[in-house]
């Protein structure tokens, strides 16, 4: 992977595939750049240059103590600059929130494609101290409990599903990402109700969601699209339960990126 240097000196690992207009993918919680590999390949097949990256505290990227949502916005800016600028940004889940937040701070991007951002608009928000409690678990050497707590309280997964994940082979790969749950929690807590600046971004905005997905995500996508002047809402039937279908999503992006 290649490396971009963020404003605070943190090294951010990224990769790219394909030729054409640049689309930077911003992953959601508990994921690495490789998790967007199928989507990146579909974008490349659609004639685009797809960029995947490890958000800080994940995979091959670095981290810095006390990282904030603003630092993550700087990471995105560093990746866009490293690949030559002039990028559109496709964010999924908390990555969609980060993309919109970064745009509101002036991070340059051509257009925004926001896939199922978990915005709550003040309804059934996690507790205000969740990020602090997650950090304490990590500092106490219990990153596994941080991951479980994040899944239960931030994501809102039912206990039986979380217990099943913990018992599966995939759980071991999630534990090293525990620190990133603090950052995702802090980001969503900060702007779960989007700021006026987020709703006033000047880039073209496309909000994308599946037809069959979690009700909170349907409500969030529909409300966000209605709140941003000129935003387009696109429902992708092939995307099911918060999993973007690569080929169908790539078609939506291709038709809106030049």
TrEMBL record:
A GO molecular function held by the record: hydrolase activity
Keywords attached to this entry: Hydrolase
Coiled coil, from the record: none
Keyword Nucleotidyltransferase belongs to the record: no
Domain AB hydrolase-1 span(s) in chain numbering: 23-250
Residues spanning the membrane: none
Name under which the protein is recorded: Alpha/beta hydrolase
Organism field: Microbacterium allomyrinae
């Amino acid at each position: 992977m290649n490396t971009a240097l963020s404003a605070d000196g943190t090294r951010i690992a990224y990769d790219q595939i394909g030729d054409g207009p640049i689309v930077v993918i911003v992953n959601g919680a508990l994921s690495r750049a490789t998790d967007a590999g199928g989507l990146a390949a579909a974008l490349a097949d659609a004639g685009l240059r797809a960029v995947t990256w490890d958000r800080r505290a994940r995979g091959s990227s670095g981290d810095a103590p006390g990282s904030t949502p603003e630092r993550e916005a700087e990471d995105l800016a560093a990746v866009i600059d490293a690949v030559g600028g002039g990028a559109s940004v496709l964010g999924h889940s908390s990555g969609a929130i980060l993309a919109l937040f970064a745009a509101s701070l002036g991070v340059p991007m051509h257009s925004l494609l926001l896939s199922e951002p978990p915005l709550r608009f003040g309804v059934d928000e996690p507790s205000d101290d969740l990020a602090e409690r997650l950090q304490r678990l990590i500092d106490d050497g219990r990153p596994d409990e941080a991951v479980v707590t994040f899944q239960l309280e931030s994501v809102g997964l039912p206990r039986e599903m979380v217990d099943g994940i913990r018992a599966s082979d995939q759980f071991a790969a999630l534990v090293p990402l525990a620190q990133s749950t603090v950052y995702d929690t802090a980001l969503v807590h900060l702007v779960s109700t989007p700021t006026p600046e987020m709703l006033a971004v000047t880039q073209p905005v496309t909000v994308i969601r599946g037809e069959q997905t979690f009700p909170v995500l349907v409500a969030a996508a529909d409300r966000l699209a209605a709140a941003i002047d000129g935003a387009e809402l696109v429902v992708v039937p092939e995307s099911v339960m918060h999993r973007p279908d690569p080929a169908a999503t790539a078609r939506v992006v291709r038709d809106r990126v030049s």
